[in-house]
Amino acid sequence: MTHRYSIVLVFLVMIVLSLACTLGGGDSTAVSSPTTIAQITSTPSTNPSTVVTVIGPTLSATTTDTPVPPTDTPTPSATPIVGNGPGGCVLRGRYITDVTIPDGTLLAPNAPFVKTWRIRNDGTCTWEASYQLVYASDNQMSGPAAVGIPAAVPGQTIDISVNLVAPGAAGDYIGTWRLRASNNAIFGGYTVVIKVAGTPTPTPTATKTATPVGGGVWGGAWDTSFGTMNLVQAGNSVTGLYINGATTGTINGTVNGNLLSGTYTESGITGTFDFWIEGTGLRWNGNWGKTNPWCGHRSGQTDLTPCGVSTWYGTWSTNCESGVSCSDMVLTQSGNAVTGTYSGTSGSVSGTVDGSVLSGTWRRNPGSPTEVNGTFKFYMTIDGVQFQGNYNTTFYWCGWRSGSSQPTPCLKN
Fold it and tell me: What is the 3-state secondary structure (H, E, C) of 284-333?
C-alpha cells in the first residue's frame, strides 16, 4: 500500500515538473501603454517558446487648441459717403408737408397762387443763398424758371415757395420742381397738383411781348435790397413773396399808376410798403414802414441811387411860423418827386425826396401882386407820421398825420 502511494506521488511530481517546463519556457512580456495597442499571437513551433508580434503604436486622437495667427486686416468701420454736392457733400431734401395748396386743390381759371412746401435738409450739405428751386417738368403754371430758397443747415426744416398761376382751361394739372445746388447738381422732387374749375376756355395764341412772367409790369422775379422777390399781377392786384436769407415774407398790394402799395407779412409781423416803378419797368424805389429803404431791379440791372424813398403823399396837419395859418397840406408823390398844396389852395410846394428828407420851394398867392416864395426842408420822423422842418432856413414848419400830434420841437434846420 505504501509502495503504491509512493509510485502515485512520483507520477504526480513528474506531471507537475513537465507542466512547469512547458509554461515557463517563454521570456517575452506584453507591456501595456496608454498610447500603445499590442497584439499578441502564439505560433506553435518545435521550440516550445512563444513568439510575440507587435503591431506598431497607434497614437490616439488628441484635441488641442491651435492658436489663430494674427491678421493685419483692420476692423471694418463706417465709410464716409461721397455725394454729388459741393465738395462731395450729400444732397438730400426730404418732403415734410404742403404748407399751401395741398394736392387736389380746386382753383379758378387764371387764379394766382403761392405754392409752399415744407422741406427738411436731410443731407450733409449746407444749403446756401445760391441754392434754388427750379422748374423741372410737366406744367410750369406761369412760374419762374428758378427762385431762391432760404438757407438751411443739415437737419433744418424750411418752407420753400413759388408764385404760380392756374391755367385758363378746366382740368387736372401737375407741375414738378426740384432743387439746384451751387454746383448745379439737381436733387429732390416736389409737385404741385391742382384742379381748375369752370368751363374750358380757348388757349390764347402765344404772342411775343415784353410782359414779364407773372403778368403786368410788376409780375415776375426781382432782385431787391431784401433778397429775391417773385410777384404775380392780376389786374391791379399784386401778390407774391420775398426770401431774405432764412426769412420768407409775403406781399399783398394794389397798383395805382406807377405806385404799388400794400402790406407785407414777415415772421407774423405785418407792415406797410410803397414801391414806385420807373418808366422802363426795370427798377423801382420805395420803402417799408414809410421811411425804411427798399428798392429792386430786374436781373441784369442795378438799383436806383440812392436806394429808398420815404412816403410823403397824403394829408398832413401843419403849423408854420407865420401870421397866416399854413393849415392842412395835401401832397401827391411819384417816386422822389412831390407836389402839393397848403392853406387851401393859396399855397403850393414842389420838392424832391432824398431818403427821409423832402426839400424844395414854396409859393404863396402865386400869380398875384402879393405872391411870396421861398425854400423849405422837411425831416420825417422814423415812424413816418410826423415831420420837423423849416422854411427859408430859420422859420419853423412842421406837420403830422391824422391820429398823431405836432412834433416837438417843430423847427429843424
Answer: EEEEECCCEEEEEECCCCCCCCCCCECCCCEEEEEEECCCCCCCEEEEEE
CA distances from 175 to 166, 194, 352 (A): 11, 9, 47
Residues 132-153 have pLDDT tens digits of 999 999 999 999 999 999 999 9
More confident site: 20 or 158: 158
Nearest-angstrom CA–CA distance, 233 and 262: 13
Query: What cell does 110 get?
Result: 387764371
Give me the chain's average pLDDT, please.
Answer: 81
Say what the pTM is: 0.52
Spatial separation of the C-alpha atoms in residues 183 and 87, rounded to whole Å: 9
Residue type, position 97, single letter:
T
**Secondary-structure breakdown of the chain: helix, strand, coil percentages, each rounded to the nearest 5:** 5, 45, 50
User: What would the grid cell of residue 136 be?
Assistant: 423741372
The Cα-based distances of 63 to 53, 58, 60, 66 in angstroms read 30, 16, 10, 9
Other beta carbons within 10 Å of 283: 18
Alpha-carbon gap, residue 11 to 285, rounded angstroms: 155
How is residue 57 written as a grid cell? 503604436
Report the distance separating Cα 51 and Cα 29, nearest Å.
Answer: 10
User: What's the rounded mean pLDDT across residues 16-39?
Assistant: 43
Q: Note whether 87 and 127 are within 8 A (CB).
A: no
The residue whose grid cell reads 399854413 is 326
Residue-wise pLDDT for 82-117, tens only, equals 679 999 999 999 999 999 899 988 888 888 888 999
Phi, psi of 100 (to 5 degrees): -130, 160
Cα gap 412→390, rounded to integer Å = 6
Q: How many CA atoms lie within 13 A of 50 on its CB side?
A: 15
Residue-wise pLDDT tens digits, 343-394? 988 899 999 999 999 999 999 988 888 899 999 999 999 999 999 999 999 9
| pLDDT digit string, tens, across residues 296-314 | 999 999 998 899 999 999 9
